Model the fold of this input.
Amino acid sequence: MICIDLEFAKDQTGLAGNDSGRYVFNKQIKPRLEKAGDHGPAQKIVLIFPSQITRVAISFTQGLTFELANKYGRANLPRILEIKTGRESLTEKIYRDMVVSL
Amino acid sequence: MDLHEVIVPHKKSRLKNQSHGNSTIFATITDKTMTGLTMCSVHDFFVDADSQKTIDLSLECSSISDDACIIVLEALIVDYFSRTQAPILYLKFPNMKQRSVSTEMLRLSLFSLFSKNSLPFECALPKTNFIEAFEQKRHSWQGAYRHISNISDNRSDFAQDAETILKTKSAIPEQFLESFYEVACEIVSNACEHGKAPCISQVKVLSGFSEKKTGKPIVYVSSSFVSFSSETISSTLKEFITISNTHEKGEENVRTALSMHDRFFTEGYDEDSFYTLSAFQLGVSSRQLFGQGGGGTGLTQLLRELQKHALAERCYVLSGNTCLFFVKDQIEVNEDGTVGFNSTGDYFNAPPSPECHAKQEYSFCGTLFNFVFIIEEKETNR
Done:
């Protein structure tokens, strides 16, 4: 299991934008995955969003999961990724949004 | 680009009276409703006006089509100021009525910051102060919030603050707020990622109204997104489809549909109209143009969610001279991600229905979204 505490500016409560999602993946997630070696689909990646984040737009989720979706397929993402946020409804939304094929 | 190029008007000026004093030009535009055509008249007048004189402009309308129109008027005035030495401009709306939605839209516009009384609505716009107010990055006043987004900005900045305004000013259901956040982020993201110009994003909350039949409290949420650019939605997509040699599903759909729509083209529905509605199919995105993969994030789908929570709505996008209306029961998203913009939901074999598209008599240089939602307020918080 690879646990990654995502970091954002303290006054930031919402996340949006496909390119912003990709940026966060490249800066905060990718290096950790590379450090862990080829993690493979069996190893869970836990993404922990700080509690101040109350809104995550689908565009951000799509960008954040773009590379992993290409590698493993969107439908498999919920098995690979575990999402933790400060609100249950937000966690559910991110799971819903990550499997949507656009 | 220069703002005075934002509107290329059809020559149909509505400027009825114009008299010149020693130092002031008094002008009156007699349109009953302030629309894009009214803006053409204002544009023509500003271009031809003697820049050495002060302008006193009276718009005799008693209603305003929407907030995007007000933003364009503000932009035209800013452009006029930046091209001339005029230190001040007087603007009057003598026929606005008490407690009308249009009057409220005006009351929550930038103009109200320079107006001493609500009715008759008159304002004196000093050059420096007005330009500063228009160009301010974030601006919040009464029930309105405006944000100018650039490529380097956080995509959620406007939506975040807009949500706060919506929550503070009225009792709007959570589901609406969530969907609004998505739509706002999507449009700002599109403008920043795909466009080459800043996006003026604005939301207004007009409360204190009640539904005619039931008397229940309702609130108007009016949101506009305006970017001035030489590129239009159709020109961007057309260029992309023409030069692209990849075969993503979204763009293949556009090519297939274009070969079918050829036979539907008329004066009122042309290739630009086709490309504009094609840009709102799922999986079609000029992001692909930049080799980043991934299709459109589905504004149409997000908008449908938002419309579900409204009693009534009017949503459209204007780009160039093409206007596309997001009519609630005509934008069903099919399983393959296509949207017909017609009652059969058929993107490939049927043209869009007449209520979903229109050709304007003028051309707007850039892209402008305007959404108005009428929502029943939550009674619990009242």
User: Anything to note?
Assistant: The first strand of chain B starts at residue 7 and ends at 8.
